[in-house]
Amino acid sequence: MSELYVPSPTHGLTGESVSLQDIEARVLDAFPEITADVVRDELTLHVAPDQLVEVMTFCRDDEQLSCELLADLAGIHWPAGDHIIERQASTTGWPEYRTSREHGAIEVNYILRSVTRNHWFRLSVATPDDDPRLPSVTDIYKTANFHEREVYDFFGVEFTGHPDLTRILMPDDWLGHPHRKDYPLGGVEVDYKNDKFIPPPDQRDLREVVD
Amino acid sequence: MAIDPNAETRTGRRGRGADAKRDREVELYVEGADWETVVDAVEDETLTVNMGPQHPSTHGVLRLVLELDGEVVNKLTPIIGYLHTGIEKSAEFRPWVQGTTFVTRMDYLSPLFNEAAYSMGVEKLLDIEVPERAQAARVILLEFNRIASHLVWLATGGMELGSTTMMVFGFREREHILDLFESQSGLRMNHAYIRPGGLAQDVTDDFVQRCETLLELLPRKIAEYEDLLLRNPIWNDRLRDVGHIDAQTCYDYGITGPLLRAAGVPWDLRKSNPYSGYEQYDFDIPTESAGDCFARFLVRIEEMRQSMRIIRQALDTLPGGPVMVADKRIAWPSQQSLGPDGIGNDPEYIRHIMGESMEALINHFKLVTQGFTVPAGQVYVPIESPRGELGYAMTSTGTNKPYRVHVRDPSFVNLQAADVMSRGHMVSDVVVVVASLDPVMGGVDR
Fold first, then answer.
1. B377 touches chain A (CB under 8 A)
2. Per-residue pLDDT band at A66 (split at 50, 70, 90)
3. Are B191 and B114 in contact (CB under 8 A)?
4. Contact call for B393 and A141, based on CB within 8 A
5. Predicted pLDDT of residue B117
6. What is the mean pLDDT of residues B116-132?
7. What is the pLDDT of residue B116?
8. What is the pTM of this model?
């Protein structure tokens, strides 16, 4: 089944462990355009979409990185506009965060894990949210198949080269991509027995529900 | 489907188009004639059969589309989504603490693992350390949950192969473990007992005693299962050399947990990336080299024994002290003792917030109505669930609600391999393969 994957001779925790700094240096040596950051002991490599396949193949095949597993693949929607978090910093004590984005983006995070060398890190790829498009990595890791279908289903990201990019968790005829931030929670027309339309939670008239 | 036009049968073809995609667009219809001659007339015998979505032996609402050549599976396509409840989306609209009540309903056979992974994600974002007693109690409950989950796998797997005895045995012992959970959290399943910062409340006075009773009971029962199944000819014939998968294919399909260990890789996040104090306990990672369904059975049986070893050590060294972090901005008062009505109403605490300190009352009110805020950032927290790597990828923007919670559910990932595992096997082996994957559809569909 894995004709694209040349089996590595090491199985299970035999390799020398690699520190996050070494991983970062190793990848940045090969791909100087990549930016990296380490926050909370987690290494994130920010990769451009057109480089994704190349970088991921390198991470899998490189002797020192040897990432056998694509552990996770998930999307996050960052819509355009100002996002000021209204909180009383004086009582909560946490620093305040303000963000502002000119262009909306969908960020897709790939978690790559090495079993033999016991490390993991994150590849972060961003694509504009009005025309989200990324190369599929199903040729590198077969496990990406379901994950990419899920991201397509929830965020509408088109993975070019995916063998069967269809909805996976929502019904086939569903409209919209529910995990985008502009998609409301509730307020979807559903055929109930009494033909009743259930409005979104923030627009519900509770008295009506009681009646 | 193509038909030999010279065959002397009363079969015919009904074309849909003049010459477009002739091979695919033709329907075969049969009017009388012997089946043998009809079959001879057909070159490609591939038959597409639907299994599910409510087949009793498909672990919840799973649908499989099988492409069969005779009785041999050529291709298997899992179709999922029937149990999708939008938990990840709903969690974005509730405070951080309430997230535990959502995620515990995903993988309903290992609810505590979901709670623990979620809570550990929030704790990593908050950068707080959970008290030792809470960590040890978490380990004990998680390992009991692992045993309970494996018991359900054994019970349902046995039932699917016709062993109703195993089904009754498995559920019987699981009920004892659920009794323990009920005594601690109030609920058999979906506990919401492990919370960000520690536990919802301290374990009861008879907690250790209850665990001891279970530790005495379970080894005898597990030996009983082995007596029943290990040399059982039907069990051996159905499981051995079925659903074979090697380590490299496991890597390719992202498979972790007992399936990877049954393929010979000693990979366990409890050992490789210890969390919640697992580094203190001495235990082995059971592995098998065969990589078939029988190897998975052996691995899971041995894992139950190893879980009991961990529980034994954790009970012996169970430390005292609080079970919730001391930070009043985060901690719900966990020292509240249960009243006769089963609801925590510690008179000391009530006196403090109602009679002594206005600030404490305000803090309590804000904590209950708004919850706490969590610093911005992204984390990925993986733990070893009974089915493999359970990962929580959480994003906070600094508010009192998660910006995004993504769950890497092991069932969801492992289910993809059902295709490669059942190719070349008979239809009846598909049931064995799916059972050995141990998918929980609540986790797959989320």
1. yes
2. confident
3. no
4. no
5. 94
6. 91
7. 94
8. 0.84
Residue among B93, B391, B399 whose CB faces A71 most closely: B391
**pLDDT tens by residue, B26-50:** 555 556 556 666 566 566 678 888 8
- Give φ, ψ of B244 to 5 degrees: -70, 140
pLDDT confidence bin for A88, thresholds 50/70/90: very low
Two structure tokens written together for B308: 């009991």
How many other C-beta atoms lie within 10 A of the C-beta of residue B420? 20
d(C-alpha B254, C-alpha A61), whole Å? 16
Q: How far is CA A49 from CA B51, B92, B140, B141, B381, in A?
A: 39, 27, 44, 43, 25
Strand partners, B396: B377
Taking the Cβ of residue A146 and every Cβ of chain B, the question of whether any pair is shorter than 8 Å is answered with yes
Is B26 within 8 Å of B387 (Cβ atoms)?
Answer: no
Give the pair of three-digit tokens for residue B209: 């005693």
pLDDT per position as a tens digit, B390-427: 999 999 887 888 889 999 999 999 999 889 998 888 88
Of the candidates B252, B256, B412, which has its C-beta nearest A2's C-beta?
B252
